[in-house]
């Protein structure tokens, strides 16, 4: 039978899926010049679809990461490259993540080169447990070759994974949920959106159940706990802070971890443990005076402590090593913004003849430049955009600030926490700069409507409560104020209190009409 006729019969009789599942390649029948192009395409696509089913079962960056539209590719790639240039210990992790991002951008050859580097690092540093650590890299290899259309190569990495996974009793055909995989998944999710932090926490918890003394996973666990506590704002004391306990755990395992020292110091400062916090930062800078991650968090600590000049010195030092860091430019901008706020308390800052006026002008210029640079490096950096708008407000350029808030309020493709922050800041702008309490109330309520328990939501709630109490002191029969309070109860899930609130309105004069 001619090759083309054979291919057509396979397709027509529905035998293609079975034939390919037996390990045959579409090229076995498609290479014949006698086989029609449509048959070849159909065979290729069928094999690709079958392969995709297997790839979706893998544990690697292609099955962990959020969708492309939620990732600031250029900024994330820059951060990964910085970590590769500065960090010898965990380069394989960064190379794997970089391969995923390059593949998203269609840079397939770069992605393959990234994975080759990851394999090289793992062989050099983890030869004794290479099979455990290579699972993710081989999975990424399979996905990259799949996207390149090189299905034979993709299948070869699935075969390698199958051989490795036979070593682990509870593994599936192509993947094994061992601590090394859980830990890497946790770190991967930490690189992306806030919405993935809880899953990252669960990954580190699972990994630590098997190996509670692993320093890498303990550090990851401490970071995610710190971020979640910062977002929720629910921790009431240093003794109830899980992240403080975890950072102390890290320092027990590795007393020389300078980054852990400054991270713990930042948490302790929140709970007014100033003496211990200050000591930890000084120790960290003595141990690692040239590590950008230590410098950046030490700078944040000194900014919060009010030592702005010390913070700026540390940030400038870090920027010489990582000149494209969004975080560092944003931190510099915050330093200048704090200086502006302090200077504005001096009446002379409003007088063009006073030296403080010139100083304020210079600080505003520096502040804007830093926030603008941070935004250029990372378009998705919402907090930098909000600070940029705040700088315009501080300089009484209200029209420019309003434009930024208007643009941010239209954003849909951002996480709930960001949406709440935007509405909180827009409300505060309306309340304190535009003197429109009605508009502020609308934005505060919009922040409450977003289903996310964050610090921004709590601040929206507190501001609304303050407005309600103030208005009721003026007029205890204010129907609109009771409507606002009723809505707040509804949005908090307190239906009985909301009903009681609305029933009160009906007893007011003209309450039935309202």
Mean of residue pLDDT values:
88
Q: Give me the Rg, rounded.
A: 28 Å
Helix content: over 70%
Structural class: mainly alpha
Give me the strand/helix succession.
Answer: HHHHHHHHHHHHHHHHHHHHHHHHHHH
Quantity of strands, as a count: 0
Give the CATH class of the domain at 61-168: Mainly Alpha
Q: What's the story with the biggest beta sheet? A: none
Could you list the spans in which at least 5 consecutive residues all have pLDDT below 50?
A: 1-34
Terminal residue distance: 84 Å
The DSSP helix count reads: 27
Structural descriptors:
514 residues; mainly alpha; Serine Threonine Protein Phosphatase 5, Tetratricopeptide repeat; globular
Please explain how this structure is put together.
By secondary structure, the chain is mainly alpha-helical. It contains 27 helices and no strands. Among the domains are: 3-45, no CATH class; 61-168, Tetratricopeptide repeat domain (Serine Threonine Protein Phosphatase 5, Tetratricopeptide repeat); 177-255, Serine Threonine Protein Phosphatase 5, Tetratricopeptide repeat. The termini are far apart.
Short description:
Among the domains are: 3-45, no CATH class; 61-168, Tetratricopeptide repeat domain (Serine Threonine Protein Phosphatase 5, Tetratricopeptide repeat, Alpha Horseshoe), CATH 1.25.40; 177-255, Serine Threonine Protein Phosphatase 5, Tetratricopeptide repeat. It has 27 helices and no strands.
């Amino acid at each position: 039978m001619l090759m083309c006729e054979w291919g057509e019969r396979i397709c027509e009789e529905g035998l293609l899926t079975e034939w390919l599942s037996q390990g045959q390649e579409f090229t076995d029948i498609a290479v014949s010049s006698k086989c029609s192009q449509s048959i070849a395409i159909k065979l290729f696509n069928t094999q690709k679809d079958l392969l995709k089913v297997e790839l979706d079962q893998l544990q690697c960056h292609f099955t962990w990461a959020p969708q492309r539209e939620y990732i600031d590719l250029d900024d994330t790639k820059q951060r990964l490259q910085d970590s590769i240039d500065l960090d010898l210990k965990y380069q394989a992790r960064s190379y794997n993540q970089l391969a995923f991002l390059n593949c998203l951008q269609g840079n397939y050859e770069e992605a393959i080169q990234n994975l080759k580097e990851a394999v090289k690092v793992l062989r050099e540093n983890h030869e004794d447990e290479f099979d455990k650590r290579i699972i993710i890299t081989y999975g990424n290899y399979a996905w990259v070759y799949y996207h390149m259309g090189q299905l034979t190569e993709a299948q070869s990495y699935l075969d390698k994974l199958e051989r490795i996974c036979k070593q682990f009793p509870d593994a599936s055909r192509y993947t094994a949920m061992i601590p090394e995989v859980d830990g890497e998944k946790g770190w991967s999710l930490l690189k992306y959106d806030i919405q993935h932090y809880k899953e990252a926490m669960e990954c580190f918890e699972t990994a630590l159940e098997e190996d509670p003394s692993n320093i890498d996973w303990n550090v990851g666990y401490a970071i995610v706990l710190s971020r979640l506590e910062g977002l929720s704002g629910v921790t009431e004391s240093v003794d109830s802070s899980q992240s403080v306990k975890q950072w102390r755990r890290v320092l027990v395992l590795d007393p020389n971890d300078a980054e852990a020292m400054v991270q713990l110091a930042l948490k302790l400062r929140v709970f007014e443990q100033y003496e211990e916090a200050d000591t930890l930062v000084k120790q960290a800078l003595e141990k690692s005076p040239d590590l950008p991650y230590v410098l950046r968090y030490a700078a944040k600590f000194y900014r919060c402590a009010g030592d702005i000049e010390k913070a700026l010195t540390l940030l400038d030092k870090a920027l010489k090593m990582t000149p494209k860091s969004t975080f560092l430019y944003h931190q510099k901008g915050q330093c200048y913004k704090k200086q502006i706020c302090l200077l504005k308390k001096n009446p002379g800052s409003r007088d063009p003849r006073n030296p403080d006026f010139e100083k304020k002008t210079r600080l505003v210029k520096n502040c804007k430049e830093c926030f603008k640079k941070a935004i250029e490096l990372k378009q998705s950096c919402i907090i930098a955009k909000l600070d940029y708008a705040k700088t315009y407000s501080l300089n009484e350029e209200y029209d420019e600030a309003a434009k930024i808030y208007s643009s941010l309020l239209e954003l849909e493709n951002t996480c709930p926490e960001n949406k709440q922050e935007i509405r909180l800041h827009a409300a505060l702008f309306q309340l304190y700069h535009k003197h429109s309490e009605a508009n502020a109330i609308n934005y505060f309520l919009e922040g409450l409507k977003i289903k996310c328990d964050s610090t921004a939501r709590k601040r929206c709630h507190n501001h609304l409560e303050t407005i309600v109490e103030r208005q009721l002191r003026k007029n205890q029969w204010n129907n609109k104020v009771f409507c606002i309070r009723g809505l707040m109860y509804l949005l908090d899930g307190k239906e009985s209190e909301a009903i009681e609130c609305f029933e009160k309105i009906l007893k007011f004069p003209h309450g039935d009409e309202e």
